Amino acid sequence: MSHLEFTLVSAAGESDVAFDISEMVIAGWAGRDAEAMEHHIRELEALGVARPASTPTFYRVAAARLTQAPEIEDAGPNGSGEVETLLIAAHGRLYVGVGSDHTDRKAETVGVTLSKQMCDKPVAASLWPYEEVAGHWDSLILRSHALIDGEMVLYQEGPVSGLLAPQDLIGRYAPDGRLADGTAMFGGTMPAIGGIRPASRFEGELVDPVLNRRLAFGYDVRVLPVRG
């Protein structure tokens, strides 16, 4: 269980909301563009990660891994972030946020679920009502920057139209086509510019060019020594 507080940004203004998240789902291999998804699969294969048996794949991770802390801790130097849309079902409504499916890449070569469970999942402190972006969903843009070797670089960027749309994704996960209240779902990611690599800081955003607004987050990565 994870208790998270957000600022809900909507056409009516801003308000505070709080949710108890009891189920966390990470949608992997969720690309709408077969070529881009194949690129990401090969990107991970180069790191020793096995090709998925089917796409998309839904990984279950402890909801307690969700965090809004400004810093996370990695066991060793093998973790890296991935900016993704975040869907939260609560009180009979669907909300949209953004976060990072931070993953241990060394552990990923052993097992994807294991690698994802090992790492905290930072998310932004603000949300939008899904109904306000549903009509122009494909116009939204995901972007991330990473601090690598002392330089902040563009790490990922692209429209969400390259990924499965929320209702399509939810329909493949839930037989009745809806997320149960208390469920959070990451919606997939895009290839890293220059390849997957660790960073000392990761920043991500979801941009809505139609309504001229953005959701953003950032976190530092503290690497813990591995001595045994």
TrEMBL record:
Pfam families: DUF2848 (PF11010). InterPro entries: DUF2848. It comes from the Bacteria. This is DUF2848 domain-containing protein. It comes from Ectorhizobium quercum.
